[in-house]
């Protein structure tokens, strides 16, 4: 009899634990998202762990590239003070990001994978050396269509 009560109690604890764990689960939004600006150019977002976002803005009208990063709130919203002077704000969804970048509405779709194989990551950064001897920060992004984005600061 005691064994039966213990088993029922254990089963009840297991059910409550499974219910509690599933209530706090979150779907992964991490990945590379890419969208086109209506006036020309584009924006690439890189979401890490659902809670951090980086944006790389290529404005063809202003002939300017901007980048920045920020935290993503629990409801998916973010505001990035991008270097040198842009503000990018929006919401991260499961398969897309809706944002305002360079004063324009943009929807960036999640890309399937970063490249032809999973061996190549989507984002690299490091220092580059100019012919003059000065160094600068270099960032490369690779998308699933084989395009390479470069930004030097």
Features of the shown structure:
153 residues, mainly beta, eight-stranded antiparallel β-sheet, three-stranded antiparallel β-sheet, 1 helix, 11 strands
Please outline the helices and strands.
Elements lengths: L1 H22 L7 E6 L4 E8 L3 E8 L4 E8 L5 E6 L3 E7 L3 E6 L2 E7 L12 E7 L5 E8 L5 E5 L1
Antiparallel strand pairs: 1-2, 1-8, 2-3, 3-4, 5-6, 6-7, 7-8, 9-10, 10-11
Describe this structure as you would to a colleague.
The structure is a single chain. The protein has 153 residues and is mostly beta strands. The protein has one helix at 2-23, and strands at 31-36, 41-48, 52-59, 64-71, 77-82, 86-92, 96-101, 104-110, 123-129, 135-142, 148-152. Strands 4-3-2-1-8-7-6-5 form an eight-stranded antiparallel beta sheet, with no helix packed on it. A three-stranded antiparallel beta sheet has the order 9-10-11, with no helix packed on it. It is globular and about 75 Å long.
pLDDT averaged over residues? 75
Number of helices: 1
As a percent range, the share of helical residues equals 10-25%
Low-confidence stretches: none
The order of strands across the largest sheet is 4-3-2-1-8-7-6-5
Counted beta strands? 11
Basic shape: globular
CA(first)-CA(last) distance: 73 Å
* H and E order: HEEEEEEEEEEE
Structural class by SSE content: mainly beta
Specify the biggest β-sheet.
8 strands, antiparallel
Report the C-alpha radius of gyration, rounded. 21 Å
Short recap of the structure:
The protein has one helix and eleven strands. By secondary structure, the chain is mainly beta.
């Amino acid at each position: 009899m005691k064994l039966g009560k213990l088993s029922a109690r254990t089963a009840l604890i297991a059910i409550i634990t499974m219910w509690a764990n599933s209530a706090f689960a979150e779907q992964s939004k991490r990945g590379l998202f890419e969208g086109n600006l209506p006036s020309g150019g584009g924006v690439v977002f890189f979401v890490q762990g659902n809670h951090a976002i980086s944006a790389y803005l290529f404005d063809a009208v202003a002939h300017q590239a901007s980048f920045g990063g920020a935290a993503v709130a629990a409801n998916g919203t973010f505001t990035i003070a991008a270097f040198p002077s842009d503000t990018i704000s929006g919401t991260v969804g499961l398969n897309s990001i809706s944002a305002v970048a360079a004063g324009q509405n943009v929807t960036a779709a999640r890309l399937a994978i970063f490249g032809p194989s999973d061996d190549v990551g989507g984002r690299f950064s490091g220092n580059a050396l100019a012919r003059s001897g000065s160094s600068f920060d270099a960032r490369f992004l690779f998308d699933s269509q084989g395009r390479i984005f470069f930004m030097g600061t």
